[in-house]
């Protein structure tokens, strides 16, 4: 493509024949790109700036008064290939990545001879050669760890290189996540540690090896952590907070350090570092109870619900015996200890409060559907506030939907204040009267 096609054919005949050139069945005439020259000994066809459409069957016909003769001349137009498709990153490690891509749909009329892989470090924005390969896959090694990179590929044949492919998504070289059975890391014997919130210090990295990320939320990130002194595995929760917000975390640590019960998430240690607090917690691997409900499409038996609620009630009972209230009880804050176990624990004590005699506590936070009337009306909270939430949780576990959920928070709050709920859905037909009575005795608006 872009070159000049020149076909020169020797001719001989007497009387001197007339030469005519054709492409397929169309006779060629001289024009802007076409030139036909000749004499008694040869005829020449010249086509400038060859295009892919110039490819095809050409022929020259000689004619005199004694007859005609024709020869056919196939012409192929070759060019660089099309670009490969977008490469896919199939493996990321600390210093290398694996790429795979498909061959171009069009090879330019000439076999693909290889591929050129380029990388772009997003800090500089410059594309540089990474390697060449003859296969539609490769491993790019000797990369710096924790660098954000993109990769693209060009195909080549003997006539040139294709345009670059679409670049990969941004990838970061990092240590691969190890294959670990987290259930094996759960320590059933651990019952928590006492922590003096006034003596919390920094340097979590001096005592723990921080490993792969386990999860993240609005307030921080949780990693697996290995205690250097013992080799034990924990969950390290890094909470990013400004100085004035650290008091809220310290209150959570203070409350947890006095809640030692097998149905409550246990705290091992805490650290106060610039811009963050770190809580070292027991490592649970079963996921949130809410996720398990979704996976099972809410197909829980009443017996299953009793199993879960009995444990949650045991945890709440212990909290109340310690004059603490949770104030954010919901399926998302109930964690299964291992993947296959039905043992659960209450987690997330960030909104928990310590009740003191003679001191009224009013709060304006929580998850709307699970809030008791006194929270949305900014009235003093009490043990009964948690009991209301237990009723909502029980309802959700048995039915798969919330008793008070409206189209918006205003409608939800109205339903809560009116204690407006029912058992009209078909799902309640197989639920026992005892279970409904249990819910009714918890969802009581008038606490007097």
Automatic annotation (TrEMBL):
<dbReference type="GO" id="GO:0005524">
    <property type="term" value="F:ATP binding"/>
</dbReference>
<feature type="domain" description="Fibronectin type-III">
    <location>
        <begin position="83"/>
        <end position="176"/>
    </location>
</feature>
<dbReference type="GO" id="GO:0035556">
    <property type="term" value="P:intracellular signal transduction"/>
</dbReference>
<dbReference type="GO" id="GO:0043065">
    <property type="term" value="P:positive regulation of apoptotic process"/>
</dbReference>
<keyword id="KW-0393">Immunoglobulin domain</keyword>
<dbReference type="InterPro" id="IPR003961">
    <property type="entry name" value="FN3_dom"/>
</dbReference>
<dbReference type="InterPro" id="IPR011009">
    <property type="entry name" value="Kinase-like_dom_sf"/>
</dbReference>
<feature type="binding site">
    <location>
        <position position="333"/>
    </location>
    <ligand>
        <name>Mg(2+)</name>
    </ligand>
</feature>
<dbReference type="Pfam" id="PF00069">
    <property type="entry name" value="Pkinase"/>
</dbReference>
<dbReference type="InterPro" id="IPR000719">
    <property type="entry name" value="Prot_kinase_dom"/>
</dbReference>
<protein>
    <recommendedName>
        <fullName>Protein kinase domain-containing protein</fullName>
    </recommendedName>
</protein>
<dbReference type="InterPro" id="IPR036116">
    <property type="entry name" value="FN3_sf"/>
</dbReference>
<dbReference type="GO" id="GO:0004674">
    <property type="term" value="F:protein serine/threonine kinase activity"/>
</dbReference>
<dbReference type="InterPro" id="IPR036179">
    <property type="entry name" value="Ig-like_dom_sf"/>
</dbReference>
<dbReference type="InterPro" id="IPR013783">
    <property type="entry name" value="Ig-like_fold"/>
</dbReference>
<keyword id="KW-0067">ATP-binding</keyword>
<dbReference type="InterPro" id="IPR007110">
    <property type="entry name" value="Ig-like_dom"/>
</dbReference>
<dbReference type="InterPro" id="IPR017441">
    <property type="entry name" value="Protein_kinase_ATP_BS"/>
</dbReference>
<dbReference type="GO" id="GO:0005634">
    <property type="term" value="C:nucleus"/>
</dbReference>
<keyword id="KW-0808">Transferase</keyword>
<feature type="active site" description="Proton acceptor">
    <location>
        <position position="328"/>
    </location>
</feature>
<feature type="binding site">
    <location>
        <position position="237"/>
    </location>
    <ligand>
        <name>ATP</name>
    </ligand>
</feature>
<keyword id="KW-0460">Magnesium</keyword>
<feature type="domain" description="Ig-like">
    <location>
        <begin position="1"/>
        <end position="76"/>
    </location>
</feature>
<keyword id="KW-0418">Kinase</keyword>
<keyword id="KW-0677">Repeat</keyword>
<feature type="binding site">
    <location>
        <position position="348"/>
    </location>
    <ligand>
        <name>Mg(2+)</name>
    </ligand>
</feature>
<dbReference type="Pfam" id="PF07679">
    <property type="entry name" value="I-set"/>
</dbReference>
<dbReference type="InterPro" id="IPR013098">
    <property type="entry name" value="Ig_I-set"/>
</dbReference>
<keyword id="KW-0479">Metal-binding</keyword>
<dbReference type="GO" id="GO:0046872">
    <property type="term" value="F:metal ion binding"/>
</dbReference>
<keyword id="KW-0723">Serine/threonine-protein kinase</keyword>
<dbReference type="Pfam" id="PF00041">
    <property type="entry name" value="fn3"/>
</dbReference>
<feature type="domain" description="Protein kinase">
    <location>
        <begin position="208"/>
        <end position="448"/>
    </location>
</feature>
<keyword id="KW-0547">Nucleotide-binding</keyword>
